[in-house]
Design goal:
This protein is mainly beta and 513 residues long. It is built from 6 helices and 36 strands.
């Protein structure tokens, strides 16, 4: 054997032995690295499905009712199959104008479809009057459009044959923002229509901050039913653009889906996913192929790329945040979980801002001949860009003795107040104009011959508590309450006949919220 051959064989031998040594060392390193560590396996969520149908009392099928799961509206309409429900017991219900639908409980079983049949009972009917709404205004109840102005030539803004109960109501006018309050919590009852006065502002429609989000109508992956962005006026909406093989989209979708299910945002936000790239067959299987994402919001298919073009999409993911008025407030690419929550919280806080400001000033008490006058001076500012009705309620929580009574006077006259609440309804002008008003409450002796507690020169005897509540007629939940408590002033000696003077009570506004 030549020296060269020997060296070549030796080199191959050494190389193979070195390779084996390297593999051994690498394996030993991995063994030490994982020693004592248990590899966590991510199990897909255990889910099942439910097939929901709705019938009337004559067993006739009814379609188009908004489905509710566990008390929360879903985007689905009856009849429909809901997939991805967690195993366990869920409350299933529906809403359809003119009917009452009792919820039922369904036990969801792993990988099975459970049929649920709901019954719609004709209910008493109510009505809503969109006072002053221009032609083309769409009334939306629980994210379901029920009609547009004009309804009839005789009553162009009155929507009749509505179911009774408490609902979320909003209005939409193409090319306009719905100014705050862009959504009302309304209790509809039989009798006189509920009067709402939606306010609209013309705003350009374009994918720019401060402009109106371009409206759209797209089919969903569940059953190809159509979903419209404009039906969610009054909510904060996230429109997220994605496609099946977008790795960055798959990174953010888990916490987008998780935040959407957060109870803190229930019935206040709506997420819509839009796929403009994949063929419908691939798009329709995306949810099923990624069960771990647990997506419960609608995924929409933009086959013609109309929404893609309207929003000027250049890359994915792309996220657009729409405030309750319909305006775009944030446009971003990939979004982090903290920024997503922060943006939602900020937009919701703005939506919850008051539309009326009511401040009570110092209270003056005037004495004359044993009678007392409480002069409530307030400043009321209507923060909406339209004239609206304000309701002022005065409630004598603790009334005087039987030989005294209250009388309430405003600029429209005086009214006796013997018991219960006194209510005033007045129109107030538009925003940026404060209206100063006063409510004078007279506490006077009804029968001098019968006498009254204390001495004749005491203007007050005992403690009196009066509560003043102000709220706009179009949103009774937005209340400003002041409570005045007057301490026992018996120790203050005031001559029975004397010029009228102003004396401050020993305790003024104790409660102000």
């Amino acid at each position: 054997m030549s020296v060269t051959s020997f060296l070549l064989k030796a080199d191959r031998y050494v190389s193979s032995r070195c390779l084996l040594c390297m593999l051994f060392v690498a394996g030993l390193f991995l063994l030490l690295l994982t020693a004592g560590c248990e590899i966590e396996k991510t199990e897909p969520p255990q889910t099942g499905s439910v097939l929901i149908s709705l019938k009337d009392t004559s067993d006739n099928p009814l379609s188009g009712a908004r489905i509710r799961v566990d008390g929360r509206d879903t985007p689905r309409l009856t009849p429909a199959t809901l997939t991805g429900l967690s195993v366990g017991t869920h409350s299933i219900g529906a809403y359809k104008p003119g009917f009452t639908v009792e919820s039922v409980h369904a036990d969801i079983v792993l990988d099975q479809v459970i049929p649920v049949s709901l019954t719609a009972i004709p209910s008493e009917e109510g009505a809503i009057n969109l006072s002053g709404a221009p032609e083309g205004t769409v009334l939306i109840i629980n994210n379901l459009p029920v009609g547009a102005v004009p309804t009839t030539p005789e009553t162009p803004t009155i929507f009749e044959r509505l179911g009774i109960g408490t609902f979320q109501v909003s209005a939409y006018l193409p090319g306009h923002a719905t100014e705050l309050p862009s959504q009302w919590t309304v209790r509809i009852a039989s009798g006189n229509p509920v009067i709402l006065m939606p306010l609209f502002a013309p705003v350009p429609v374009e994918p720019e901050i401060g402009s109106l989000a371009p409206p759209f109508e797209l089919p969903c992956d569940w059953d190809s039913s159509l979903y419209r962005l404009q039906d969610y006026r009054g909510k904060v909406v996230l429109v997220t653009f994605f496609f099946c093989n977008c790795s960055a989209c798959l990174e953010e979708l888990p916490y987008i889906a998780s935040i959407y299910k957060d109870p803190d945002y229930a019935d206040r936000v709506q997420f819509l996913g839009v796929d403009f790239t994949d063929p419908y067959a691939a798009f329709a299987h995306f949810r099923a192929e990624h069960p771990a994402l647990d997506i419960t919001f609608p995924l929409l298919h933009d086959a013609q790329r109309a929404v893609y073009n309207a929003y000027n999409i250049v890359s994915c993911p792309a996220n657009f945040f729409v405030d309750p008025t319909g305006r775009l407030r944030l446009i971003t690419g990939a979004i982090s979980e903290p920024l997503l929550r922060q943006t939602l919280d900020q937009l919701l806080e703005t939506a919850d801002s008051p539309t009326v400001n009511f401040v009570m000033q110092d209270t003056l008490i005037h004495y004359a001949n044993g009678d007392s006058t409480y002069a409530f001076h307030g400043v009321l500012a209507n923060l909406l860009a339209a004239e609206r009705t304000m309701v002022i309620q005065v409630d004598p929580i603790q009334t005087p003795d039987t030989n005294r009574q209250f009388s309430v006077c405003t600029y429209n006259g005086c009214y006796p107040l013997r018991s219960g609440s006194f209510e005033i309804r007045e129109y107030f002008p538009a925003m940026l104009r404060d209206t100063v008003f006063s409510i004078d409450i007279y506490n006077y002796v009804t029968d001098w011959s019968a006498g009254f507690p204390g001495s004749a020169d005491s203007a007050l005897w005992g403690d009196y508590t009066v509560q003043v509540t102000v709220f706009p007629a179009d949103n009774a939940e937005e209340q400003t309450v002041y409570r005045l408590h007057l301490d026992d002033l018996n120790s203050v000696s005031i001559p029975m006949i004397r010029p009228r003077v102003a004396v401050k009570p020993r305790s003024s506004w104790l409660i102000s919220n």
